[in-house]
Design brief:
The chain is mainly alpha-helical and about 180 residues long. It contains five helices and four strands. About 30% of the residues lie in helices and about 10% in strands. The N and C termini lie far apart (about 50 Å).
Length: about 180
């Protein structure tokens, strides 16, 4: 059985910040997969598989799904642009109460499972840098309308199109707080 010894790993690699529990889990899964496949080292493909099979958070899952749905040629530069767009979109005017960067989060049920719309797509809402749901002037949770490639849809004046997210009494944010109502 593969056991990642953190002290020896940290002697070989220096990170500017400590690894989260989930990041360590991804590396442990990558090491386990490498050993299972009979390989003598952990490589990038093992880390990618560790991301896919390990316990990851909603934001990582969102980025992986966004990269998978990207229709541009999968060059390293294109993938990096897509990841940066997903994690750090440009701030949007009209929401000065929310610190940027904005990101999508999932509407969840009381158990933390993502809820789907009638087309089977995960319902999303926009959150600010502090994971606070962004609301319009009417107090309703919003998201950015996106096209099939994930890019924001703009109106005739070039402004981002905002869509209200239906949030009922049994809809929660990804942190277990009720979304319904302001």
């Amino acid at each position: 059985m593969f056991v990642l010894e953190w002290d020896s790993v940290m002697e070989q690699i220096s990170f500017p910040k400590p690894l989260s529990k989930r990041a360590r889990g991804v590396l442990e899964e990558a090491g386990r997969l490498s050993e299972e496949l009979g390989q003598d080292s952990v490589r990038g493909e093992h880390i990618l598989l560790g991301l896919l099979h390990g316990e990851i958070g909603n934001e990582t899952r969102f980025v992986l799904r966004g990269v998978a749905e990207y229709r541009e040629e999968p060059t390293p530069e294109a993938i990096e642009r897509r990841v940066m767009y997903l994690l750090f979109p440009k701030p949007h005017p009209g929401f000065p109460d929310h610190p940027s960067p904005y990101h999508d989060e999932w509407v969840c049920d009381a158990d933390g499972n993502p809820k789907l719309d009638d087309r089977g797509v995960v319902r999303r809402y926009l959150a600010d840098a502090n994971s606070v749901p962004v609301r319009n002037k009417a107090g309703r949770v919003v998201r950015i309308r996106a096209d099939d490639t994930g890019r924001p849809v703009r109106d005739g004046n070039g402004e981002i199109v905002w869509v209200e997210v239906e949030a009922g009494p049994d809809d929660y944010d990804s942190h277990g707080k009720l979304l319904g109502g302001p």
